[in-house]
Amino acid sequence: MNNYKDIIIRPIITEKTMKYMDADNKVTFEVKKGTNKTQIRQAVENIFHVDVEKVNIVNVKPKEKRMGKYVGTTSAVHKAIVKIKAGQDIDLFGENSEK
Question: Of 14, 23, 4, which is closest to residue 92 (Cα–Cα)?
Answer without folding.
Answer: 14
